[in-house]
Amino acid sequence: MFKPITGAAAATAAGVLLLSGCTSSGPADSQPTSAISAGASHAPTTVTVWTFNHLPNEVAAFKATLGQLHAKYPWLTVKFVPNKDDAAYAKAVAAGDPPDVFISSAPDNVAKFCYNGTVADLKPYLSSAGVDTAKTFPAATLVYTRYQDKQCALPLLTDAFALYYNKKMFAEAGITKPPRTLAELTAAAKKLTKKNPDGSIKTFGFVPRSDFNANRYIFTGVQSGTDFYGKDGKTTFADDAKWQQLLKWDRELIDYYGASNVQKFVGRYQPHADDASNPLLTGAAAMEFDGEWHVGEIATLKKDFDYGVVPMPVLDAQGTGYGAGNTLGTVAYLSAGSKHKQEAFFALQQLTTDTTFLNQLADTVYNIPSTFAALKAWDKASDPHWKPFVDLFQNSGSYYKTLTPAGVEDMDTWRAFLLEYEQGKVKDAASGLSGVGKKIDDLNAQSGQ
Amino acid sequence: MATALAPVENTSGGAPTRPARGRGPSPSGARWWIVLAFVSPFVVGFSAFVLYPVVSTLYYSLTDFQAGSYRPVHFVGLRNYRLLFTQSDNFWVSVRNTLWMVAVMVPLRTAWAMLTAWVIIRVKRGRTVYRTLFFLPSMVPVVAAALSFIVLLNPVGPFNRILDLVGISGPGWFSDPAWSKPSLVLMALWASGNLMVIFSAAMLDVPRELYEAAELDGAGTLRKFVSVTLPAISPVIFFALLTGMIYTFQYFTEAFVASSSSNMTSSSSQLLGYPANSLLFYSTELYQQGFSYFKTGYASAMAWLLFLVIFAATVIFIRASRRFVHHAGGGR
To answer: Does B273 contact A at CB distance below 8 Å?
Structure first.
């Protein structure tokens, strides 16, 4: 029998070993990083694909494509598991049993997963498979799927954001053309605003607050002609005066309506951004900043609604940069810990580059196809409501802010600051911007940036 | 069990087994296995689901471990604890919000449950019906209750429409930073039926003679409540406050559902603490750090700090309770 002291030491050592074992030290396999040939025979393999929460028709679209994939390549079986988010994926990785492919709804953790070695660099596979990313995927998608020199994910459909407006209200207000600058947007918003006899607001021209619907993407730099991060990797809030101008525009419009009126509007309509009670559809707002999926929703919810879509106005008084916008979308990762990397990449490649599948899924989820070939073949690309989004997506000035190993924490910190500012808790915009900039820089420094 | 605990005979012929001091004779090696076999379900369950997680979070709290990361894990000493206090605004916001709930929700919920119990035990007819009605909300799953309240307390929802009818412009409730925490308190009061049942049982247990003696001394309803009922049920009040405090330090589900549901659209990711961090409680911040930002080491440090605070608060509260908790059978 062990003496107590020996037993305690053994237990401690075992505990430390056990605990250390739970912090995965990384995949130590020697799988080739080349792609497999589509035409070659192959041993039967099952690849697990996790994806985020989908509606039943979206799941059906995925399953149909994966079924076709299996029919075309009988050796490849894909086990499709929906309703998995980034947290579930990280837990599976930590447990040493990640899915082979993970499809995430947003690119926020691309840099984090890449930096941490959670996902595989796809460059060797793409090269081996003869996929030229620059010729396959529009540049905007490559911005949010890369970290430093690594291709950490591939885009699987994308989103773009633009200004929706009610044509009838514009005509009634005598506005002949949509605004191109934020100053013009404010002027139009004021013209379009209607009040009830008791002084309350019947129709908002435009609701400015950053937490409403997709508005936060107005504040990531594209609309103000600034970069969220400078060339040195640090935030530009303290140095670039345009951030203050953007906040000032936001503040002035909130003050015009009254903070409590805007508060009520946001509280009332936030849950109805995507249903028939949407403020643009009900006439509670004349303009709205939203993603391209809203075109599909309107076609379903209120087919005869007369509206237009234009790029979101920009801060610059000359309108320079008008036509560009935020673009980001769904991303598909290849797990570094996958036991079938070659086969998993093959499935990933099919999902992200197959034109028929991309266009079928785009029509189902109301997104934009994310390859040049799929865009060319997409019948909606010339539709007057979809075309502005396709143009935005392909505009060379469109991008999403640089992703960092801090993941979504930088954006969350920025969003929290914006809300504090809009609630009137930040008295001095300049020092507030400087403070939040430093906070985000510190976060990035701690994360390994 | 008597067999296992019976004195052990020395059958080996060697030196007699020395019994442990004050604990009676200890079982021999063979009997140890029998004892272990019987307690093994607990030992295995406790070790796997309590001891191991507790020890591992302590270890993680001293490292830079991130869930899902294959980077080497480094021992960072107390850095995570230092960062909590020195570099995280959200940490202090969550501490303030949590203390607000402990200071406001726990006493209000206890007082409300006590009041409803006191009223219900005075109802002559239909007491059981009223008690059932008050108890029912506590059976509703927390997530369902939170979602229901979000709908009811929508700025243009049913509750505000009723307020409109009487000329009151209702607040934004969960979408207004000034009203979001009071909205959660309102929900807690609505669901305090389980506590109400405990209070009514305690009140019904107060000896009638005490009330009769008080009446003979000329005590009115309020005096009887203050001088007879409250002291008699003080152990239950203590229980309600203590468990309420421990629960509220770990307050999570209602706040998580309220903040994410009020904020979530197809184009927005969860911003826990919405609106304006007013619903950012300690446990939601811990969840955010651990499961949104994957900072497992940092979140583990938060968990340990929470454990220590709850432990200390519990000890202090138990000691302080000696002054106000009346125990039947004499003394306080």
So the answer is: yes
Tell me what pLDDT residue B169 has.
Answer: 83
Q: Are the Cβ atoms of A211 and B292 closer than 8 angstroms?
A: no
Q: Do B177 and A423 touch (CB under 8 A)?
A: yes
pLDDT at position A286: 98
Amino acid of residue A181: T
Q: Is A194 helix (H, G, I), strand (E, B) or coil?
A: strand
Please provide the CATH number assigned to the domain covering A39-158+329-394: 3.40.190.10
Reported ipTM: 0.86
DSSP per-residue letters across A347-392: HHHHHHH-HHHHHHHHHHHT-B--SHHHHHH-GGGGSTTTHHHHHH
Q: In terms of CATH architecture, what is A161-325+404-447?
A: 3-Layer(aba) Sandwich (3.40)
Distance spanning both ends of chain A, measured CA to CA: 52
What's the CA gap between B312 and B306, in Å, rounded? Answer: 10
Coil, strand or helix at A327: strand
Q: What separation in angstroms does the CA of A202 have from each of A187, A194, B77, B246? A: 18, 5, 58, 46
- Give SS3 for A298: helix
Sheet with A45-50, edge to edge strand ranges? A76-81, A45-50, A101-104, A331-334, A154-155
Q: What is the pLDDT of residues A279-306, one digit of tens each?
A: 999 999 999 999 999 999 999 999 999 9
Any A CB within 8 A of B89 CB? yes
Per-residue DSSP letter, A234: S
Q: Does A406 touch chain B (CB under 8 A)?
A: yes
In which domain, by residue range, is B134 found? 89-321
User: From CA B323, how far away is CA A442, in angstroms rounded?
Assistant: 48
Q: What CA–CA distances, in Å, run from A17 to A8, B59, B69?
A: 14, 11, 18
Tokens found for residue A242: 């345009």
Q: Is the pLDDT of residue B97 over 60?
A: yes
C-alpha dist (Å) from residue B203 to A59, A336, B233, B244: 56, 63, 7, 19
Q: Would you call A424 helix, strand, or coil by DSSP?
A: coil
Is the model more confident about B44 or about B261? Answer: B44
CA distance B106 to B98: 11
Q: Do A323 and A311 touch, CB atoms closer than 8 A?
A: yes
